[in-house]
Amino acid sequence: MTIDRAVMLFAGLVILVSVALALVHSLWWLALTAFVGANMAQASLTGFCPLAKILKRLGVKPGEQHDGAVDGHGGSSLAVISVNSYISARSNTTRRRRPMAAWRMRMALVAALVLAATTARGQVYEVRAERVVDRKAVFATVESVDRTLARSRIAGTVVRLEVDEGDQVEAGQLLAQVEDPKLKLRLAAIDAGIAALEAQLELARTELQRTRELRRRNAVSQARLDQAEAQFRTVRAQLAAKRAERRVLEEQLAEGAVLAPQSGRVLRVRVTRGSYVMPGEVVAEIALQHYVLRARLPERHARFLAPGQRVWIGPRGLGPGEPVGEGVVVKVYPELDGGRVVADIDAAGLGEYFVGERARIEIATGTRTVFLVPPAYVGTRYGVDYVRLENGREVIVQRGITRNGRIEILAGLHEGDRLVPVEVRP
């Protein structure tokens, strides 16, 4: 290989490598491409080629010399060789292959430069102002729409307790059993009174039948018959009253069972087994199945709230990150609570939360103008965020939240700024 071909090969390889590095690493590698082009230009004007001089000292054979093509060291520059080869081709048709190779090399160089410029231009990001929905981050509490209380209906002692906090219960399910020992004693007394009245009724019935038979024979007066009939009706009425009293007492015993008024989750059990309760005393507090997020916003945001408005719900546990769910405002209360607007938000999956658990939500409170930049154009160095302009100057910026994969820039940029991707640093 001659010095001519070695110079062309080295220049082509350097151009290709610098363009490839500019594509995958940094646009600053195009400076190497510019350096090669500048060196070729000066070699064509001055006849001095450093690479040709080095190759000659290394013992590489020089190419065929032409008029004005040899520099002071006997090496040939790329541009001079190409021109002389073109002149030689006009005088000698047998040397057409050398100018054709030179022209191909020139066209490849031009195509590489155009490709690098186009790629660099495609990577430039022009900053434009955009209107976005301004979100207010607040905390909401998971609460039940309604709560119900399971109360004792009689006075007595809790002999059974079937539920604990957090249990799911169905409507009519037994929660506790309250018993009053006096009620059983009263029931036994009523049963004895009923037995006595049944015996009296049987006696009154027999006496009435006997009196009717004697009256038929005119052995007794009509007054005696009327007295027997009245006695029978009296005993029968007393027996009916006693039986009704027994049914009342049975109902009181049945009311010792404390049942769940509606289906839901037990939030609190206020009694223990063996404790004494009075009629109407709360045994358990139950939250109904329907849960909502109850948010309290500052008064200045009241005009932005309306039923049907969409709300973004953050990850559970108050952790940072993008919203993981959405909800809808279902009710805005007309009365302020401590200077704050209260709103109920309906969302799916709230049944898995604890009642009273807080969740981070974002509510739209108007629109504003922002600058959004892709993450590849924002870098961080020593804890400071920065961007790189097209002219290479670095500008410190203030980073905001991430919206749909792009970073909001709060300060440091102006509309129309042209950015290039920052360098990838270890």
Provide a compact summary of the structure.
The protein has 426 residues and is of the alpha+beta class. 37% of the residues lie in helices and 30% in strands.
Structure in words:
The chain has 426 residues and is an alpha+beta fold. The protein folds into three domains: 3-122, no CATH class; 147-285, Beta Barrel (OB fold (Dihydrolipoamide Acetyltransferase, E2P)); 290-420, Beta Barrel (Elongation Factor Tu (Ef-tu), domain 3), CATH 2.40.30. Helices cover 37% and strands 30% of the residues. The chain contains seven helices and 21 strands. It has helices at residues 3-24, 30-46, 50-57, 78-91, 97-122, 181-216, 222-254, and strands spanning 125-126, 129-144, 147-151, 156-161, 168-169, 174-179, 257-259, 264-269, 276-277, 282-288, 291-298, 310-313, 325-332, 340-347, 358-373, 379-381, 384-389, 394-396, 398-403, 406-411, 418-420. The strands form four sheets. A six-stranded antiparallel β-barrel has the order 2-11-14-13-12-15. Strands 1, 16, 17, 18 and 21 form a five-stranded antiparallel beta sheet that branches. Strand 13 (325-332) and strand 14 form a beta hairpin. Helix 1 (3-24) runs antiparallel to helix 2 (30-46) and helix 4 packs across helix 5 (97-122). It is rod-shaped. The relative contact order is 0.12. Mean pLDDT is 80; it is low at 65-98 and 118-122.
Order of helices and strands: HHHHHEEEEEEHHEEEEEEEEEEEEEEE
Strand content: 25-35%
Largest sheet: 6 strands, antiparallel, barrel
How far do the termini sit from each other? Answer: 41 Å
- Count of helices? 7
Give me the side-by-side strand order of the main sheet.
2-11-14-13-12-15
Shape, per Cα inertia axes = rod-shaped
Q: How many structural units, i.e. domains?
A: 3
CATH fold call of the largest domain: OB fold (Dihydrolipoamide Acetyltransferase, E2P)
Runs in which pLDDT lies below 50 for 5 or more consecutive residues are 65-98, 118-122
Helix content: 25-40%
Oligomer: single chain
Give the CATH superfamily of the largest domain.
Answer: RNA polymerase II/Efflux pump adaptor protein, barrel-sandwich hybrid domain
Beta strands, count: 21
Top-tier CATH class of the largest domain:
Mainly Beta
What is the annotated CATH architecture of the largest domain?
A: Beta Barrel
Radius of gyration: 50 Å
What structural class results from the helix and strand content? Answer: alpha+beta
Q: What is the mean predicted local confidence, pLDDT? A: 80
